[in-house]
Amino acid sequence: xxxxxxxxxxxxxxxxxxxxxxxxxxxxxxxxxxxxxxxxxxxxxxxxxxxxxxxxxxxxxxxxxxxxxxxxxxxxxxxxxxxxxxxxxxxxxxxxxxxxxxxxxxxxxxxxxxxxxxxxxxxxxxxxxxxxxxxxxxxxxxxxxxxxxxxxxxxxxxxxxxxxxxxxxxxxxxxxxxxxxxxxxxxxxxxxxxxxxxxxxxxxxxxxxxxxxxxxxxxxxx
Length: 222
Known about the structure:
Structural class: mainly alpha
Order of helices and strands: HHHHHHEEHHHHHH
């Protein structure tokens, strides 16, 4: 597979944002005609494309010559959960600090709901009890309206944050953290020596968690 490049990722970011605009526009039309299940699905699809745009944009500033980084970028671009989470990034970035905690909590609830509703809003299936479920049985009008409004909000914030900006340049520590699995990060942070190690860095004025995790993982063996 051809190596990822900064220009390719920036092009993908722009194309994904354009596609998101089309998907959200189509969701609005379907909502007006009371096709609630389809409107919901396209709204979620639009949110995923917004997330893909954000993922590609932010990845463009990483060290793409590192095979581990390139692999992580490709995996995240294909992962529904990663894309939905990333769609909220521009919105949280533009949120005032005194409202950030509340915004993060609300975002996590919405992310879970969108992931659970994505497939049922489009496809029929047989449930464990033998009954058949249809999208028409799953998506309520209020859920459809809320999902379209959410997609509109994410799109508005993404345009403000991603359009005309330059991708952020990342450090070696940032890229290291980016390539680690959740279980690996948890393992490092739960190491008996990590808390004391991080506390010493904080006392010295360095509060960056990703930098601390990288320094801890690459420290000389005792």
